[in-house]
Specification:
By secondary structure, this protein is α/β, with parallel strands linked by helices. The protein has helices spanning 6-12, 15-21, 42-45, 57-62, 113-132, 137-154, 167-181, 203-220, 255-258, 276-286, 323-333, 345-351, 371-381, 416-427; strands at residues 28-31, 37-40, 67-73, 76-87, 90-98, 106-107, 110-111, 187-191, 226-236, 239-248, 290-296, 299-307, 315-319, 338-342, 359-363, 386-391, 408-411. It has 14 helices and 17 strands. α1 crosses α5, α2 (15-21) runs parallel beside α6 (137-154) and α12 (345-351) packs parallel to α13 (371-381).
């Protein structure tokens, strides 16, 4: 039988590949069409036991082998679970998992090898697209980052929660990575605005859900169509959500299948596992989100709705005597906070008792009452607010201001990234 082609073998020799896949904790390997091991992790290599069984050569060649008990692969014996690797319409080989050791892999409260196979195959496809398809360092770096996030979502261990996931950044990384590595006949369109509602989502699971749907869309158009991804704020039924749509202009999903597409193991593909959309539905349920689908010939749209976390805006008082700086600070912070601005200490002291203030940004040197005296007076009536003290001095003696209960110090001229980072850290 003809051995494997070079695409998969070349990928496995990439140092970024080993860096990513070595973290996969389950017993897994990638095989050539003739079952030659191209790559296997250490858990896979440690498994023994069973008897040799020669699978049907026709099944191997066509990529239709699914499960084999008591099979020997390169001297490794046991029971194996297969899923064909299909890349841009070509059969490259198999993703294979070894059944023992997977009892702890739970989805919907039960062991699910299909979910593990499907996720590992998707991860491989992502890496194929993002690493082997380009020599651009920024794409390779972005691909490794995306693959790690995907891997974090399918590996065992404690979940890593993002208090605030920036959907704008996450979606643009996914779109950029797939767009840059796609064929010339595959068109990506996107509409991802800034100003989306904040959400609290496990980032790896978000990457996993969206990547599953993007890969499904790529398969639907057979690498030669249009995939559109958009995000938007939704206010309905008294709730707020961030919506994400992934659409394609493929042949569509038959109406008879629409009610079943989220069922585990349901697939209309000859070589599909039927786990991808079930994984999407399961994760969205875990996130208290919603997944919907509409389809007709020439247009399929999946809509994800993630619950928004709407927090009351915090209040910031800015006391800065340079008008231009005052205006810049107020403008930059007013999108996320309610801002009160003052050009001198006396006007601030006249108003501060009538305002709700969560953070005070104040210059040490001010006309009239200086910043230090303002802080002392402010602290008598507000002991809970955070304070950032700005100074043009070359050095700041922190010990000098301990009795003022100042939370952070910044130097002037302002480093705005540093200042805004301090604001976010103190208030969010």
């Amino acid at each position: 039988m003809e051995e494997d082609n070079s695409i998969l073998a070349n990928l496995c020799s990439n140092e970024g590949f080993e860096e990513i896949f070595s973290q996969f904790e389950k017993s897994a390997a990638f095989l050539s069409p003739s079952l030659k091991i191209i790559w296997a992790n250490k858990n896979f290599k440690q498994i023994h036991g069973g008897m040799e069984l020669n699978p049907d050569p026709a099944l191997l060649k066509e990529g239709r082998l699914t499960d084999a008990k008591n099979l020997v692969i390169d001297g490794i014996e046991g029971s194996f679970n297969f899923l064909p690797i299909i890349y841009k319409g070509s059969f490259l080989g198999y993703t294979v998992l070894h059944s023992p050791g997977f009892a702890e892999l739970q989805l919907n409260g039960r062991s699910n090898l299909n979910a593990a196979k499907h996720d590992l195959n998707n991860l491989l496809t992502i890496v194929l697209n993002l690493i082997s398809a380009s020599e651009k360092m920024d794409l390779i770096s972005g691909g490794i980052s995306l693959a790690r996030d995907f891997l974090d979502g399918i590996s065992s261990g404690p979940e890593k929660k993002d208090k605030n996931l920036f959907i704008y950044d996450a979606l643009n990384l996914i779109i950029y990575s797939f767009k840059e590595s796609s064929s010339g006949t595959l068109v990506f369109q996107s509409d991802i605005p800034a100003g989306l509602f904040p959400v609290t989502i496990d980032k790896p699971k978000f990457i996993r859900v969206v990547s599953n749907l993007v890969l499904n869309a790529i398969e639907a158009v057979n690498d030669a169509g249009i995939i559109a991804i958009s995000a938007f704020n939704i206010e309905e039924d008294g709730g707020k959500y961030v919506g994400v749509t992934i659409s394609d202009n493929g042949p569509g999903i038959p109406q008879a299948n629409l009610k079943r597409i989220f069922d585990d193991a349901f697939s209309t593909k000859e070589r599909g596992s039927g786990s991808g959309l079930n994984i999407v539905k399961t994760i969205m349920d875990e996130l208290n989100g919603i997944v919907e689908v509409e389809s007709r010939p020439g247009n399929t749209v999946f809509t994800l709705k993630f619950p928004a976390v709407i927090k009351a805006k915090k209040h910031i008082a800015i006391v800065e005597d340079e008008p231009m700086l005052n205006e810049v600070l107020s403008s930059q912070l007013s999108d996320d906070y309610i801002v009160y601005s003052f050009l001198d200490g006396d006007s601030f002291l006249y108003k501060h008792n009538s305002l709700e203030i969560d953070l005070l940004i104040i210059d040490k040197k001010l006309p009239g009452t200086d910043g230090i005296e303002c802080v002392k007076i402010f602290r008598r009536s507000n002991t809970n607010a955070k304070i950032i003290l700005a100074s043009g001095s070359e050095t700041i003696n922190v010990d000098e201001f301990k009795n003022l209960n100042v939370n952070s110090f910044v130097r002037k001229p302002y480093n705005f990234d540093q200042l805004f980072s301090a604001v976010s850290e103190l208030l969010d």
